[in-house]
Fold this sequence. Notes:
This protein has helices at about 30-35, 40, 135-145, 145-170; strands spanning about 5-10, 15-25, 50-55, 65-70, 75-85, 90-100, 110-120, 125-135. It is about 25% helix and about 40% strand. The chain is of the alpha+beta class. An eight-stranded antiparallel β-sheet has the order 1-2-8-7-6-5-4-3.
Amino acid sequence: MKPDLRFTFQADMPAHRLTITRDFAAPKALVWRCHSEADLLDRWFAPEPFTARTKSMDFSDGGHWHFAMVDPDGAEFWNRFDYIRIEAQDRYTSRDAFSDADGAVNPDMPTSDWDVRFTGEGDRTTVRTVIAYASEKDLQTVIDMGMEAGLANSLTRLDTLLDDLTTERTPT
């Protein structure tokens, strides 16, 4: 039986900020890998029925992740994370923006600053993500786009991936 895995999604409209907290039944190092390696991100970082496809990634201070969320008909919705600071296995900060296939940021869509922190002990890890937007309107835009349901679904996909990776590491 799976342990109780906390998921909270809190919108602070006046501060135009989201705080998402999620527990995982996996070691911190493994959860970190799933956030920092393109081949693993591609396996979970999109809500069903979408898939993620990395075009380029450099997970380092000043690096980026440029990827598309692809729907079942093949339509691509491009995005990029520009990594600001990475503290291995503990935290990273980044700027998230909608983009085009070449990585140019779409100025008509909201951008956000992410602060993602990892804490854990043994086979339990908590990821706390604070996402700040420029305005309440920008925050409302992403909420209306389905941010809460999309994140919940993506994080459930991460649970499945973590289970798969744990099984692959455990000899039978």
